[in-house]
Amino acid sequence: MMQQLKSSNNMTIEEAKNTIINLLKNDRSIVERKSDKRLIVNGYNYQIRPDEAFYYNDKVFIVEYENNKRPVESISKYHWLFKETAWLNQGLVIYLLFIICNEDLERKYPIRTKSVEILGYDLSQKYQEKFNFSFINYSELKTAQLENAVQSMLGM
To answer: How far is it, in rounded angstroms, from Cα 27 to Cα 123?
Structure first.
């Protein structure tokens, strides 16, 4: 039986963004932060646009805030990145935090959110040294869970 979702207790996209930005604002190892810009590393343009990307010397921490009803499109671009480009030659690890920010998406289309989760974890298994994945569904989107995910992924 599916649990009842309570939107009043869950974060908006803006609240989630602000939480992550505030959590990382004093991280001096961040080289650059880009919002809704193409993934460009060492002069190579990878044609994907993460919602938020924090560039470090040895990794890129990416956050996808998913609000539309086709979240599989967002995770599939990372499959494309690893299979169809020279990303693996860059020597950078991608840490992808995928957040479902839409109550209806989780409630009405659970197969879509579960598919994202499966595909993300499949990528992290296949490319263990190059891809780290974490998933937060709308019903879990609260400050503590978001902070824990970021801290766990980045070893804070």
So the answer is: 27
Query: Distance between CA atoms of 148 and 24, rounded to whole angstroms?
Result: 13
Sequence-ordered strand ranges (E) for the chain: 32-35, 40-41, 44-45, 52-55, 59-66, 93-100, 131-136
Question: pLDDT band at 5, cuts 50/70/90?
Answer: very low
Q: For each of the domains in the chain, give its residue range(s) and CATH number, in order of start.
A: 7-154 (3.40.1350)
Element containing residue 104 per DSSP (H, E) = helix 103-108
pLDDT mean over 30-51 = 93
Side chain identity at residue 107, one-letter code: R
Q: Which of 67, 63, 66, 72 is nearest to 39 (CA)?
A: 63
- Per DSSP (E only), the strands in 1-72 are 32-35, 40-41, 44-45, 52-55, 59-66
What is the pTM (predicted TM-score) of this model? Answer: 0.91
From residue 5, how far is each of 10, 107, 139 by CA, in Å? 9, 8, 6
